[in-house]
Amino acid sequence: MSHHVVITIARQYGSAGRAIGQHIAKKLGIDLYDKELITMSANIKEMSPDVLMSADEKAPNSLLYTLALGSSIYASNSTLSNLLPINDQLFITQSDIIKNLAKTAPCVIVGRCADYVLREHPGRISVFLYANTEFRKQQVIQQNNVSSTEALDMMNKVDRRRISYYNFYTGRKWGLRENYNLSIDSSVLGIEGTADVIVEYAKIFAKKNDCILPGI
Asked: In Å, what is the CA distance from 160 to each residue of 13, 63, 121, 155, 163?
């Protein structure tokens, strides 16, 4: 049975993860899911996307509360799961969506611990993007119209949040090379060049593993 290729992208803030993901999706003719997962989750949960946005890619504030509810954190669609912090509810819902997307068609998924959620999916290609400080800083300045000092502060805060989120929900270490198929410094080849490398890897991977990917 052939499986769809799903490219998951974990990324340092400012390493151009979404932009690279967009280039990959365009080159391969497949869909990309990033913030779109929040809207999809909001529709399922019948909640405001703004409420879920505030919890996106953030670990819950109360570790004790989550631990007190024990194994129910992964009891998707259960009554008890609705008592969990919004962060946990969002993680569960997004995980279900990601698994369903992987069954439906080849795609690119940015963040949301997708590499871990799809760890048993034979068509998963997990990528971690990092970059040097100057490259990341310029990306953040351009995207947010902030000063150099503010950009550095944002980089540190967002990465700390992503580390906390990933480590909390996966029990793994964010950015550790053993957790990914590819770890790439996006500042070396730039946005399009990095996307090209990942696209070529995906094509070779799909052929070698008899996975479904458009254009091969």
From this structure: 10, 16, 28, 8, 5
Alpha carbon distance 163, 186 (integer Å) = 19
195 and 110 Cβ atoms separated by less than 8 Å: no
Q: Domain coordinates of the chain in residue numbers? A: 6-209
Whether residue 66 has pLDDT greater than 50: no
Q: pLDDT tens digits for 80-121? A: 456 678 888 899 999 999 999 999 999 999 999 999 999 999
CA distance linking residue 187 with residue 169, whole number of Å? 29
Say what angle helices 17-28 and 186-209 make with each other, to 10 degrees.
Answer: 40
Name the CATH superfamily, with its identifier, for domain 6-209.
P-loop containing nucleotide triphosphate hydrolases (3.40.50.300)
Eight-class DSSP state of 82: G
Assess contact for 60 and 88: CB atoms under 8 A.
yes
| Residue from 6, 28, 178, 184 nearest 104 by CA | 6
